[in-house]
Amino acid sequence: xxxxxxxxxxxxxxxxxxxxxxxxxxxxxxxxxxxxxxxxxxxxxxxxxxxxxxxxxxxxxxxxxxxxxxxxxxxxxxxxxxxxxxxxxxxxxxxxxxxxxxxxxxxxxxxxxxxxxxxxxxxxxxxxxxxxxxxxxxxxxxxxxxxxxxxxxxxxxxxxxxxxxxxxxxxxxxxxxxxxxxxxxxxxxxxxxxxxxxxxxxxxxxxxxxxxxxxxxxxxxxxxxxxxxxxxxxxxxxxxxxxxxxxxxxxxxxxxxxxxxxxxxxxxxxxxxxxxxxxxxxxxxxxxxxxxxxxxxxxxxxxxxxxxxxxxxxxxxxxxxxxxxxxxxxxxxxxxxxxxxxxxxxxxxxxxxxxxxxxxxxxxxxxxxxxxxxxxxxxxxxxxxxxxxxx
Amino acid sequence: xxxxxxxxxxxxxxxxxxxxxxxxxxxxxxxxxxxxxxxxxxxxxxxxxxxxxxxxxxxxxxxxxxxxxxxxxxxxxxxxxxxxxxxxxxxxxxxxxxxxxxxxxxxxxxxxxxxxxxxxxxxxxxxxxxxxxxxxxxxxxxxxxxxxxxxxxxxxxxxxxxxxxxxxxxxxxxxxxxxxxxxxxxxxxxxxxxxxxxxxxxxxxxxxxxxxxxxxxxxxxxxxxxxxxxxxxxxxxxxxxxxxxxxxxxxxxxxxxxxxxxxxxxxxxxxxxxxxxxxxxxxxxxxxxxxxxxxxxxxxxxxxxxxxxxxxxxxxxxxxxxxxxxxxxxxxxxxxxxxxxxxxxxxxxxxxxxxxxxxxxxxxxxxxxxxxxxx
Lengths: 391, 375
Hints:
Helix content of chain A: 40-55%
CATH class of the largest domain in chain B: Mainly Alpha
Distance between the termini of chain B: 28 Å
Structural class of chain A: alpha+beta
Shape of chain A: globular
Order of helices and strands of chain B: HHHHHHEHEEEHEEEEHEEHHHH
CATH architecture of the largest domain in chain B: Up-down Bundle
Structural class of chain B: alpha+beta
Largest sheet of chain B: 8 strands, mixed
CATH topology of the largest domain in chain A: Butyryl-CoA Dehydrogenase, subunit A, domain 3
Number of strands of chain A: 10
Radius of gyration of chain B: 21 Å
Oligomer: heterodimer
Largest sheet of chain A: 4 strands, mixed
Number of helices of chain A: 11
Strand content of chain A: 15-25%
Number of helices of chain B: 13
Shape of chain B: globular
Radius of gyration of chain A: 21 Å
CATH superfamily of the largest domain in chain B: Butyryl-CoA Dehydrogenase, subunit A, domain 3
Number of domains of chain A: 3
């Protein structure tokens, strides 16, 4: 047993940290969710800089420009998200790329991976539909075979990065009988600027946007089928496993906790620092410990990935605990900041430039995306603990 | 990073699990709850023969030269099996205190006997100063200057009624405190006429005692020149050892509950096919997984000699809180049968209460973590 990172990995962590220190902009204290024009430009610039260093592709095999090190990819996530600085693109780097490496054809890998590695392309995940949320394989978007193409018709919704994506990893129905469920679903790579693709921004509760994507007779060449026809479920489950792994959410919440600790140390209430209040102090200690637990659950998944083992229900454990942690940090912030917590950026009274309010709002859907907390619990119970299937 | 146990540790775990499955039946656990001594002699001897008593001590003192992490693996299995008797108090509370802080003569006198299983020890060490200072033990320099005279009362001392020697911390009064620091550790012969001890009736029937010391003379040879660091290290080991024991208990409660959910039929189907029960089990599984990771990370840090104050306190807080949740859900899944005296579930819940309160309850460790956050 050894909970430490190797010397080489620790050296790399320092390299990442000094890059972050150099690139961090004081006027953009938190830029994890870019919205304004300036923020988006900064995000794109950082993504390319990270690409120039080869840090989008550290986990990939050497033959595709990677370093075969999931640990180093993890270290990049840890550093960037704890410092709330943009650069990595979790969807493209950590979800789409490994799925393509696992299921894609050689041509697809040669075509798509280099641009992900350099940080030039952005991907989105076309899974959820109005009638297919937790019940993913009830999806209805059609892919009908015609000569050397598939013709796509239908709709995706709640699609993160849809507005800025160049490509979509799409799940669509190649057998139109809905009763076939996962046996009638295939995975595709879809060009977001193809004729017939319409993206509509969808404003979320944090005032930011994800998107709705409509397909009207979109032509996708057969060469863009990922894996075999009607075998898309496998690729989609693998991608969900990658989505549920990782440490970015946990590090982001830990960054928020650090801000709360600083606030509690430096804010005076009734003549004493807030930290002197036992309720505040103990609450912060509790979420610190919860963060430690989540970090170790993420390490557990990472460790399985380094061994090439099955990660499925361990990823669900990490995801479940991590998203609850995110929400607990959000709740604690509201109570520790009191009425100031509701202030949006812009007012001179707003603490921490409104970052806390943004974190709070973004924690609300954490237990919904990538499979709801209930779906994660089902997975842990049935696949992990071997309980009989629920009906 | 390597989160798996070594092959040797896996063998040790398997051996311990198999041995305890046949030698430490719940029948024995129950008998020992009611027994006035609570010390199963035959089992004690067999464990010593297996080398368990000496596992963590260096070979030069007759031990097996194992690491603290090795001991943790063994303790987790003992927690799972609810091993009765003074193993933890002898090895962790007594033996490790001597190993960490004792001088060469003291180690030579005590450790080989511990390794052979010839000695039962405990300590009157308590980390919970907030709640125990008023029971503090005072030491004053003996009139002949060749030792100390110790007076005081301590509560919740494990197996003091059956032990041979007690490691006892005491506060020095008078001038010498300024010269040598204000705490000494002394080794006290339980048969010393000044020592008296009665068993407390506790929730877990786990043989905690009320220890009274009246003018107990401790000669210099039995005073441990403990530094604050040595004392802190022993407290950390005791806390982490308690954490792994608790992790074993929680894991067993999870497995019992999952097994029960698979077989208990209601409404014509196993209750484990209801999402309400599945989600209870999933929540327990996450708690237990994180509990084991936190406990073993702390054990690994101790083994490696890396400072780990915040990791130890984090582990104890999580174990306290996770065990509380796991225990409640375990009861919920088991329904009325789990609250029945003849069922094993309640054996675990009563012990988890005792464990949560020992070596620092959650509030005690929250203060320690908060101190780290402020620094």
